[in-house]
Amino acid sequence: MFGRNSFAKLKHRKRQTSKGKNGTKLIKSCFCYYSSCILIFPCPAQGRVNSMLKLAELLSLAGLKLFFLNTNRIQERLTHFADVEARFAKYPGFRFITIPDCLPEDYRQKHNKLEVIKSLEVKSKPILKRLLIETRPPVNFIIGDGILGSPLDAAFELGIPNFRFRTISTCSFWSYFCIPDVIEACELPIKGVFVEIEVEEDMDRLITKVPGMEKFLRCRDLPSCCRVSDTTDPYLLMMVNEATQSPRAQALILNTFEDPEAPILSQIRNHRPKTYTIGLLHELLKTKHRSIKTQESSYQSSNSLCEVDRSCITWLDTQPSQSVLYISFGSITVMTREQLMEFWHGIVNSKKRFLWVIRPDSVTNKDGDVEKIPEELQDGPKEREYIVKWAPHEEVLAHEAVGGFLKHNGWNSTLESIVAGVPMICWPYFADQQVNSRYVSEVWKLGLDMKDVCEREFVRSTARMAELARKSVSEGGSSSCNLNRLIEDIRLMSSRQAHDN
Ligand code: UDP
């Protein structure tokens, strides 16, 4: 809990502030404002910005004041492609603020998004700290993206209470959390040279050191950072470090709901008793808007960082019920030209109708340079198929014509698929997606791994899980109640902080 020690640190912050360049002005401001204000800081990536904006809107609807911090590049894209400015203008206590991402354009183009995020984190830390000291009204509560250490460090140094928000599933969070035990039990590293695919390892061997998953978690289902032959690999260490850092925050917020993840949630709550499950955020937000009778248009709004091509909805309107396979690998996945063409031939040969999202930057060569999308896969409608650069995802999944979803198992789109009741075919790409796809196929029976068999049973399970998901966000459901608890706790902790300040 937020203790005396932290309050002392906050007082130290005020003293530090008074020595700053604008000392006199800032001291005065400190004593003028007592209202509580939350800072939300997502990692600059589509899935994360999307879900944290939804959390921000839910908190704003409850009347909380907050700053939403984006990098200037993300803010530019949001302003250009989404309706965020108009939408959030309705909340007088809400304000977007930005920090530079400190990265030259060519760096961003040549490095994968994880490296970009890591570099941003190092460079943004001092900026973030200064911003927290100088922003008015003073920030007295932080909700930071769990993948970023910088909000946690800054909150800790300045004595500001903070909660961590993880945009991944509970099961993948737990598997990251247990990696040190898996290493200690010598179940990692993977034997062989992974990069050149000379893997000697039996990738189907069971991992025994992730409690609750002993019967089905195979070596191949571990998060992708584990696919290394050396446990001192910097990326593996970074992910382990992030998982073990989580107890430094006073609570954990997860975009999930209780029913499917209950056994693993109870494992996590042994370590992190204050864990709020408030997913599915996008559905919860719709439910709240409905309950206060907001106009339909406002809860179909987008937080998109790319131009949404809505023409595919018109095409879907002309397709038979449940006849279309929707294909999307999210905002980060890249593949080689050969892989893309393998998918293309497989899908075309299946003679099924399909709607496919192919981002212009989704094909790269071995050096990581973006390659041109092959001519036959350029966007536009054909008889049985439609290719777009970016789709209105939630609307597509909810469309009557969509009967299946071939995907990479990013957590946001997995949740969106669960609530829409659409069965999934999983082709996990990286990070948490390997664990998610194992759960989708083996535990929840909502879809299939591309290597496994297809069973009719999946369809019945998707309907049942969709019903549980909708129940969790309805009035009195677990996520709805947890959100109320979260809001109360934030109010209490931040007003205590403001009062002491
Ligand atoms: N998305 C979208 N349009 C698309 C593809 C994806 O709006 O054509 C959104 C999708 O709704 C989800 C996010 O992008 O909220 C992707 O997040 P996810 O966690 O599924 O995967 P990531 O992109 O982080 O790998």
From TrEMBL:
Residue ranges for the region (Disordered) are 1-20
What are the alphabetically sorted keywords of the record? Transferase
> Can the keyword ATP-binding be found in this entry's annotation?
no
Question: Could you tell me the superkingdom of the organism this chain comes from?
Answer: Eukaryota
What residue spans carry the Basic residues bias annotation? 9-18
Q: Matching InterPro entries, A to Z?
A: UDP_glucos_trans
Per the UniProt record, one Pfam family is: UDPGT
Q: Does the keyword Cytoplasm apply?
A: no
Check the record and name the CDD domains matching this protein. GT1_Gtf-like
Q: Which family does it belong to?
A: Belongs to the UDP-glycosyltransferase family.
Q: Cross-referenced PANTHER family, in alphabetical order?
A: GLUCOSYL/GLUCURONOSYL TRANSFERASES, GLYCOSYLTRANSFERASE
Q: What is this protein called?
A: Anthocyanidin 3-O-glucosyltransferase
Source species of the chain: Hevea brasiliensis
